[in-house]
Amino acid sequence: MLIASWNINSIRVRLEILQEWMAKRKPDVVLLQEIKCENKFFPEEFLKKLGYISNIHGEKGKNGVAILINESISHELEKVQIIDLNQTHQSRFIHVVLKKINICCLYTPNGNPLSNQKKFEDKLIWLKNLKKFAEPFLRDEKDLILGGDFNVLENEFDVKDIDNWRNDALGHNEVIKYFRELIALGLTNVVRLYKKPGECYSFWDYQKQCWQRNYGLLIDHFLVSPKIIEKISEFGIDSYLRNLNKPSDHVPIWIKIN
Question: pTM score, two decimals?
Fold first, then answer.
């Protein structure tokens, strides 16, 4: 089973890129963030023709998450759950149970600017409650996959100049602390097993020729429970998509599970 995660930054703008990538990568499950549309405007029929069933938690004009499941395994879908982790009524988290595996697609609040105390506090509350959500799965030894845009620069080499990000909500010490506490429950950040810090990024801003200069950030991750990590045979980042016409500023990351 191949599971991918992608902050697509407006799905209706990226349909051609999405279709071409899905035909090439052939994912079984796709976690999408920032779909930027309400459920009724999500291209559900378009994706159904491609062979995918959509589970959607949309929001008008911003945020929004979805989990696409290949119709060949969709009969093994047991549960779909929507959770508001910080009571802001933003569409940032969707959880499904597929083949007894708990798969969560998440889009952590950005938290900027730091001068807006509420935005930053909302991010911290969100991360605290994500930890509370994950705790019982790890305690009961259930299979758990958290995939998505975490909006955190956890390692000093996840960007070229981390010192310039210490006063940003992505590189703030308190945010990093909560992210590491989440991992400390017993999760593994898959990218760390396959890539050295600074070897890859998942986001390049549209401004200041960041892609051309390879000024990227690694903020998209898969955190997985112990039994899952034992079954992962491959990890990848499809960076080439950032070089296409009208790309998202993020690129897909994926894991293959035996």
Answer: 0.98
Domain of 188 in residue numbering reads as: 2-257
In tens, the pLDDT along 5-59 reads: 999 999 999 999 999 999 999 999 999 999 999 999 999 999 999 999 999 999 9
Which CB contacts under 8 angstroms, 24+ apart, belong to 181-185? 181/131, 182/127, 182/130, 182/131, 182/134, 182/223, 183/223, 185/131, 185/134, 185/135, 185/138
What CATH number is given to the structural domain containing 106?
3.60.10.10
CA proximity to 96, closest of 144, 46, 153: 144
Beta carbons of 65 and 33 less than 8 angstroms apart: yes
Residue type, 131: K
Number of domains in the chain: 1
Confidence of residue 150 (pLDDT cuts 50, 70, 90): very high
